[in-house]
Amino acid sequence: MEAFVYWYLAGTIVVIQKKDIATFQQGSQENFWQAWERFGVLIRRTLNHGYSDDRLNEIFHNGLQENFREMIERRYPIEFRYVDLEQAKELCNHIEQVEALLDRELAIQSQIREFGKELKKLT
User: Fold this and answer.
1) CA dihedral 59, 65, 67, 72 (to 10 degrees)
2) Which of left, alpha, beta for 44 (phi over 0: left; psi -120 to 50: alpha)?
3) What separation in angstroms does the CA of 40 have from each of 7, 37, 56?
4) Category of 112 on φ-ψ map: left (φ > 0), alpha (ψ -120 to 50) or beta
5) What is the dihedral of CA 52, 56, 59, 61, to 10 degrees?
6) What is the mean pLDDT of each run of 10 residues along the chain (123 residues)?
7) Is the pTM of this model over 0.70?
8) Structural domain boundaries enclosing 27
9) How many domains does the chain have?
10) In a 10 Å sphere around its CB, with 0-12 CB exposed, 13-18 middle and 19+ buried, how is residue 99 labelled?
11) Cβ(21)–Cβ(53) below 8 Å
12) What domain of life does the native source organism fall in (predicted)?
């Protein structure tokens, strides 16, 4: 009986995890690299998901918020959903690095503005 319950639950869990992959959507507060990381976790947690690399790329691409999809399509002259998984990983890692640089730049600009405000108070 215990073996049956384990077998049944294990199969059910895989079905739920496959559904989580298939219905992936970028969160409203998630940036690109956070969505990429979360999608990777979903895939690694269900190694027997059965999706092809092409299908995984398509699911990820379609699950992105529209502004992120448009950014990818404008910046990179390739059809993201049709590249192989390694190219998609390289592209996502590159986008992640660019986003991190932009985040740091925005933080520095914010600090400069705050410094300027403090400087005005002193003069």
Assistant:
1) -30
2) alpha
3) 26, 5, 10
4) alpha
5) -130
6) 58 83 92 86 87 86 85 69 69 74 77 81 76
7) no
8) 2-122
9) 1
10) middle
11) no
12) Eukaryota
